[in-house]
Amino acid sequence: MKIVQAFKKDNISWNYLTDKITLKNPLVLVFANRLLLEDDLFLKDIKREFPYEHIVYGSTAGEIANINVLDDSATVTAIEFERSSFVIKTGNILDYNKDGVALGKSLYSSMPKDNLKHLFVLSEGSFINGSSLINGLEEAIDSNISITGGMCGDDAKFEKTLASYNENPKEGEVILIGFYGETLEISFASYGGWQPFGPERIITRSEANVLYEIDGQPALELYKKYLGEKASELPQASLLYPLNVTPPGKEDALVRTILNIDNDSQSMILAGDVPLNSKVQLMMASVDGIAEGASLAAQYAMKNRVAKPSLAILISCVGRKLVMDQRVEEEIEEVKSILDSETVLTGFYSYGEMAPFFASTRCQLHNQTMTLTLLSE
Fold first, then answer.
1. pLDDT at residue 362 in the model
2. pLDDT value of position 239
3. In terms of Cα–Cα distance, which of 318, 320, 297, 272 is closest to 374?
4. Which pLDDT value is given to residue 306?
5. Which of 275, 272, 262 is nearest to 221 (CA)?
6. Which residues of the chain have pLDDT under 70?
7. What is residue 328's predicted lDDT score, i.e. its pLDDT?
8. pLDDT of residue 359
9. Calpha distance 362→356 (Å, rounded)
10. Quick one: pLDDT at residue 237?
């Protein structure tokens, strides 16, 4: 595996973090600020600098390049696979009436299955229910195939998210990358570091990713009581106080970010499903807790690996970035300290992360986690 990585900020020249070499038919991952992805001149600049066939774009809430966390920039990571291969498929949620299950099923059915080892999802983050997309992808999946990925961001603005493959980035797009190869080793992990607090309650009315009632009380009204004076800062304040949701019959809890609120129905729209009769608890975080969570994610991802990873794709939640603030690079440094010193790090801050729980292959949508995908040949 050969990798070239560079980033660009403030319209200055490209800053290369690796040797600048010509690659053969690489996969090119472009993680960039949404406004840059709407700039035709900037897109032409990327194609000039990286004149390759397979370019995937995704908007972010912050870009990761090596141990740098950047804003208002673009990071480009070009990967040449020497003993393995990849296939890219796309679909748009707006063509499926926002039905994530239908889109997921269609994307998976279009992907060649022979020697398929792993699927990586880069999804728009505005219209889609990430849990539904995963359910569609996994409906007919082979148990040996794992899925990781993330949902694009738009800083903390939540105005619109963009993604694309070999065309100008657009709304609603979902990209699925299939990886193939006998010698390809891919491992992954996801961990948060947030702490639940307050009483554990029960979800008594919900529909998909909309939460209406907790313990028979209007969900938003109850949530505002917990937030106190911070309730006036909703919905932005909700990124700092996600929900810990344990579905009925499950031991592993999922963290759910509140994306928006509806004062009329006193409901909350979350980034993923919140099943009826789930246990639910409020969460909060400290800088040290989040950094420790990132370290644990890296440790879990490295467990039982045969080869050192050549590439690490880091997807971390925008809520973690807001909590970490000026210390945000500490969680990236924690990951780097666990991985091999020569591993190239790329990634972005997201509106949702996708990965199985440790020791499982069934993918879940997560919020407020550091999610890692490690690759080597």
1. 92
2. 86
3. 297
4. 96
5. 262
6. none
7. 97
8. 74
9. 5
10. 86
Q: How far is CA 11 from CA 8, 28, 66, in A?
A: 7, 20, 20
State phi, psi for 334 to the nearest 5 degrees: -60, -45
Choose among 73, 69, 120, 33: nearest CA to 316.
69
**Topology (CATH level 3) of domain 195-283:** Thrombin, subunit H (2.40.10)
CA distances to 128, 131, 212, 365 from 209, in Å: 10, 9, 10, 12
Domain boundaries, the chain: 2-191+288-376, 195-283
With a CB cutoff of 8 Å and minimum separation 6, the contacts of 126 are 154, 158, 160, 161, 171, 172
3-state SS of the chain is CEEEEEEEECCCCCEECCCCCCCCCCEEEEEECHHHHCCHHHHHHHHHHCCCCEEEEEECCCEEECCEEECCEEEEEEEECCCCEEEEEEEEHHHHCCCHHHHHHHHHHHCCCCCEEEEEEEECCCCCCHHHHHHHHHCCCCCCCEEEEEECCECECCCCCCEEECCCCECCEEEEEEEECCCCEEEEEEECCCEEEEEEEEEEEEECCEEEEECCEEHHHHHHHHHHHHHHHCCHHHHHCCEEEECCCCCCCEEECEEEEECCCCEEEECCCCCCCCEEEEEECCHHHHHHHHHHHHHHHHCCCCCCCCEEEEEEEHHHHHHHHHHCHHHHHHHHHHCCCCCEEEEEEECEEEEECCCCCCEEEECCCEEEEEEEC
pLDDT score, position 235: 81
